[in-house]
Structure prediction request, 205 residues.
Amino acid sequence: MANEQNFPPPLPPTFPRQSSKSSVPVIVLGCAGALLVVILACGAFFGILYAGNKKADPVVDAYLTLISQGKFDEAYATLHPKFTEAVSLEKFRQIQTGLTEMLGSYQSKSIRGININTLNGVTTTVATYAMTFEKGQATAVFTLIGDKIARFDIDSPLLRDRKCPHCGVALTDFGNFCPNCGKPLQEQPKAESESQASQINNDSP
Ligand SMILES: [Zn+2]
Prediction:
């Protein structure tokens, strides 16, 4: 008995005094909070998708209407200077003629994603669409600076037969230069592109 009294008394437990009664509501509140965050995040996502698309859609629609009517020059005139400085009207006509040959006419589209960025007062919107053409499906990404299209990229299995005339690498977009060898794709002779187009039409993979 006397020996036991020499030992320091046991330290009181340092756990916060939290009964199981109070921890359950904490967990419930935690879950509710997390759920609310998820709901808000989803709401914000669809809100941004809706708001962004509401802004981008009329621009893209007006452009696609002109393209599907074959009014390439008018469509070109609606584009952002960043595009028209990089791609000449002649090249643009080539691209659109090529796209129409390979995809057929444009039919419909639906939004898949949107990304809006404002830097120094300039808003850049990147809208991704699933597009339906006469001959099949494509994914198109339109980049708008302000309310003008500054870039577009179209990818489709129907376009994967395109090859660089210099190095033969498959081309998936319609840039001015080959992404593989860096040579300009602009100087493709007309006769060659015609024979390529007829090849694509006659070939079965
Ligand atoms: Zn190349």
Notes: The longest strand covers residues 106-119. The radius of gyration is 29 Å.
